[in-house]
Specification:
alpha/beta; six-stranded mixed β-sheet
């Protein structure tokens, strides 16, 4: 069976009015052109501010459409708004169905599944979790179907927010609640995933590169392809750099 090569980029934060971020994306594009993977996945925050400026989404789509390989997309909080948490303040731009539909009208999907190299790949919209939107319940039903039909294939899960910092039992803290899948959605998702042979959870959002294994599951946080968040605004929990992640599935 041939290998499947995938490049994950994340947190590109693109907008016509921000040329530095566009230049960074062009550097990423040159690297992708040289490597020619089978697929590129952008795991969210494609746009700088999609909820208030649709043109940011459209500009991001234009740049990705120019890449020399196929792409799949997932929304981030800068694309459709953020999800509520049990602790901490309400998000200034909450995720809504209207913003989700806006994202769909530009990118065509906010969740997906495909099989390659003997693996099942699943992409989820992590921003509808904890919102009580109809699309949240629909996504859970859809995920259950995709997991049950995996037929023992190893599963690679892609989503914008990491599941957790170190383990499913991590407490939700007010200072970092917006960084991870919020409770109680996290518990529900973790329980659903136990039914599958989950091998990889690939995310972004934190703007830091991190790679760790909890039990047999590898967790990869892609760094931002756009910019680093200064230490004064965010503590170091991984490696702060601009970059991407390459995978080979056999």
């Amino acid at each position: 069976m041939p290998e499947f090569r995938l490049i994950q980029i994340s947190d590109t934060h693109l907008a016509r009015r921000l040329p530095t971020l566009t230049q960074n994306f062009h550097r990423v594009s040159e690297y992708i052109d040289a490597r020619r993977p089978d697929l590129v996945v952008n795991s969210g925050d494609l746009a700088f501010d999609g909820p208030t400026n649709r043109d940011d989404l459209e500009f991001a789509r234009e740049l990705h459409a120019a890449l020399p390989v196929a792409c799949r997309y997932l929304p981030g909080n800068h694309d459709i708004g953020d999800n509520p948490t049990e602790l901490g303040p309400a998000p200034p731009q909450p995720a809504t169905e209207q913003e989700r539909q806006n994202f769909l009208s530009v990118f065509g999907e906010d969740r997906w599944r495909f099989d390659a190299a003997g693996w099942r790949f699943i992409g989820l919209n992590s921003l509808v979790m904890n919102t009580s939107l109809a699309s949240e319940a629909a996504q859970y039903d859809w995920l259950a179907s995709q997991l049950s039909s995996a037929d023992g294939k190893p599963v690679a899960l892609f989503l914008h927010k990491p599941l957790y910092l170190s383990s499913p039992e991590d407490p939700e803290l007010a200072a970092s609640a917006i960084r991870y899948i919020p409770m109680p959605a996290r518990s529900r998702l973790v329980e659903m995933l136990r039914a599958a042979d989950l091998r990889l959870v690939a995310s972004g959002h934190v703007h830091q590169r991190r790679d760790f294994t909890y039990r047999h599951i590898r967790h990869v946080w892609a760094p931002s392809a756009g910019f680093i968040i200064p230490d004064a605004k965010q503590e170091v929990i991984g490696t702060k750099e601009v970059g991407l992640v390459e995978y080979r599935f056999l």
